[in-house]
Amino acid sequence: MYFKRLEMHGFKSFAEPVVIDFHEGITCIVGPNGSGKSNISDAIRWVLGEQSPKALRGGKMEEVIFNGTENRRPRGMAEVTLVIDNSAGILDIDYSEVAITRRMYRSGESEYMINSNACRLKDIRELIMDTGIGVDGYSIIGQGKIADIVSNKPESRRQIFEESAGVVAYKTRKAEAERKLDNTRGNLERIDDIVNEIEGRIGGLKKDSEKAARYLELRDKYRDLEINITLRNIENASKRNEQYKADIGDFEGKINFIKNNRRGLDTEAAEVQKRSATLDKMSSDSHEKMLKNIESINSITRDSQLNQEKQAAFDRDEERLNAEMDELNRKIELTSQEVSRLASSREEVVAGSHEADNVLEEKIFAYNQITGESTSYTRTIDEGNDRLFELHSKAASAKSEAKSIESYKSTMEKRQNQLNEELNALKKNLSATDDQIRREDSHTGETESERARIEMESAKCYQTRRELDERQETLRTSIEKLRISETQMTSRKKTIEEMESNYEGYNYAVRYIMRSALSGIEGVVADLMKVPQGFETAIETALGAAMQNVVCADDQSAKKAINALKVNQAGRLTFLPVESINGRKAEVDQSLMAGTGYKGLGVDIIEFSPKYKNVFTYLLGRVVVVDTLNTAIELSKKAGYGLRFVTMDGEIINASGAITGGKYRNKSANILERKNEIIKLANDIEETSIQLEEQTKELSGILDSIRKLDKIAEKLEGERRENENAAAAIKGKKAALGITLGEITENISKNERELGEIQRELSGTDTMIARMLDESKEAENEITRISKEIEIAMVDHENRKKAVEKASEEITRSRIEAGEWAAKVTSAEALLKRVSGELDELRSQVEDKSDQLIQLSRDRNRLMFGSTDDSVQLEQLQQERKSLDDVISEISKEKEEIARRLGELNEEQQKFDGDINSYQDQKYQLEIKVAKNETQLDTMKDRLWDEFEVSYAQAEDYKRDDFAMTSSVKESRDIKNELKGLGDVNIGSIKEYESVSERYKFLTEQRGDVIRAMNELESIITDMDTNITRTFRDNFNQVEANFEHVFSELFGGGHAELRMENEKDPLESGIDIIAQPPGKRLQNINLMSGGEKTMTAIALMFAVLKTKPTPFCILDEVEAALDDDNIDRFSNYLKHFDQTQFALITHQKATMEHADVLYGITMPERGVSKLLSLRLGDYDPEDYTS
Questions:
Q1: Beta strands in 393-535 (DSSP E)
Q2: Phi–psi pair at 751, nearest 5 degrees
Q3: Tens digit of pLDDT for each residue in 246-255?
Q4: Stated pTM of the model
């Protein structure tokens, strides 16, 4: 067995597909740091099932997928395939070549495959277990593995020894056995818990089951007795109702006679009350007039007294107003004198204020004259200084600009020479670039046609795949629905069949007889016929209680069954002996048969065995089935006596004409529909199963087609990527050449423009320099002249400065004086205004008081002249009051007569009402009795239904002719007391006890099986421990011997040994390494130098390989710490292992010299690794000489 090749696509830095072929001997993988060499080791570790991102030098497992660069998009998945030659059959699989594939998508999903067949990670690990090439074995020695071997943790070295000893498989199976043992212990605990629980329940369930059986027996007896008692009570109540109704008729006749007499009294009373109402209105009107008259008289009397009081008030007001007016006139005179004085004072203050303002204006005028002369000198000095600054700037700028132009001229001349040289070189490059672009254009057409072909095939493939996916999803949904439907129908069918087998819906007597298996019992009527769909309700209604009649062979069979019912008190039942039953089929008139809605005779509609013809003729030979109740009524009137009509909805018209309708809710109501439903469900389940099988086959075909399409799509995707890469390469070259061509053209144009600009600028530079120097000289002469003018103006300005300060002080004093006079004017005007306002207010008050005196005089006159009319009006009102008193007296007399007659009428009405109420009370009591009786009837009929689930009509079938009311009531009471004495009864405990008993027996047997399984697992674990210990010790001893020999060879002498930390527990013991290089003392490996540690670890690795050679071993920079001599020893020793392939990842030239094949890893594009290979045996130096 050996590795043939490694295929990578999108793994870490290998963005493009890469294939590495492994040959016999030593393969070296070289390259600079960061080029991706160790990614090859990671790829092998990853494909063999590594689950730790840290072991792959990453933080998350998604980091193994190529993550893109500046120029490349990230990949959507990473895929690695390792191909192993298994011609020797070392791997336990029937293939000479095994391809292990691992694929991971960026979404986090992973796939594992063996020879392109999907598998589990567990399958891959079991396949390579104990071969030495597992991720935890010694075939992959990474950069950190050497450090683990020489680390301070002896337990970390155990993995290598266990892998080489071949005990990993044993330990895995042992762990699996221990896990199964733990699960088995858990199962045993759960079984013990359940058994203990059942043992605590089963005794009680047995008692409950016996109690429930006795309860069912008593319940059926009680039901039969109570139905007959209730029927007898219904008969008695019906008779009482008839008597009550006759008495109610007599009372109604008496009540009507009294009511006629009372109506005459009511008419007379109404007329008397009408006259009384008229008198009441007349009396009310007279009283209202009387009240108004009295109120008017009182009002006139009160007004006379009020006028006298008002006259005295007017006198007092007039005296008060005259005194107030005298006081106001005195205040007006004093205020007028004060106003005159204040006006004279204000004129004097205004004159003083004008004089102060005139003095201030004179001072301001003098100050403005002085400051005007001083400002002209200041302006002259400021303007001169500004002009000097401008001239200095102008002179300096002119000199600086002249120097700049001279420097610029020199620079332009140098640039002109440089541009001429560049222009010649650019014109040569332009011609070469045009030739390259024409060559690339010729390749573009080929890639475009190939791309069109691939896109067309891909689109066709995608469309087909999309249609298949849609169909697949449709089929999956349909299959799921069919499975759910099939499960539901199967469950429903099973439930109904169980109800049929248990005779659910039949009374206890039927169930007892059918379970007793008595000879001669043919079956229940409902089981011996087949009813067409749609006729179930009609036939079941027509049969009624006869549905539960039992058909037997003869009279003797019926007799034995009845005796069994009596002995066991199992209830009553009707038996139909086949030999003795007589049935006569009705002769139906042709006119009835031709009628609309006629369906046929019941016996003709159903199907049954010919031997039961007399039975079903007896039951349904005179029953006509029609569609609706209207049809039944119409045909029943035409038919002769003896036919019963039943509608499809279950209404019945009996031969007597009685009509029965409604709908049953009792348990037997769905017996026939239940039987038909079983047949329908069986057919539906069969149809569903056929559809399910057909759709499953179609789905399987679609999945095969999808897999084929995926392979085609994958191939097209590869071709598309290659085409895109080729097109991108061509496009990139053309784009680069186009950019280069544009840059060259633009540079030529730019250089030519720049040369023209330089030439133009150089032509005028000399003239500009001379002009700038002349401007500078003129500015310097102007500066000298202006400086002299400024000096003269500054002397004059100092002389004027003192006169300005004196004038300013005089203005300040004048302004203060003028302000004081202005304040005095404002104060005088305010005081004058306030006193004038007070004078106006006083005059206004005098006018108001004068108006009030005038109004007071008018009111006094009006009061004096109005009192003379009141005496005349008072006399008229007293005469009107006397006439009203006479009218009111006459009305009162007539009202007294009317009240007397109304009293007489009321007495007669009360007598009639008393008689009516008495008769109505007696009638009402009878009606209450009738209502109570009818309620009792309804209650008793409802009780039949609610308690026993039989209608009143069905209860007639249970009626016994020999029924004795008194003894039956006593027997019923005794049964009821016994039922109460039973207490709470669990009917389900009968079946529950049977079920729990069976379960207890099953669990007891299962507990024994689990205990035996535990003993077997414990024995297996003990045997495994013995085998593992023996195998590990034997392998350890062999590795220790090989280690001492290899150490001596690699070091050129010395001594080394391996020691277990705990000899008594080799399976968990750590392993110490003791080494003695030549010329040194025996010491622990941790005390050695770095190079010695590495050589010791390599010696241990070689010792393990000698003990159990592995077909392949990859070493990642394990010799990095060695010098050239030790590298030479290391490399030479590799050749001792002729059965092992070695792949070395290295930087050491000394190691490369011993390689048979060299692979170089480069990174020409940042972030993307490339592979170069060289087989040294094929190297010929002459091919590389010129």
A1: 521-524, 529-530
A2: -65, -40
A3: 888 787 787 8
A4: 0.36
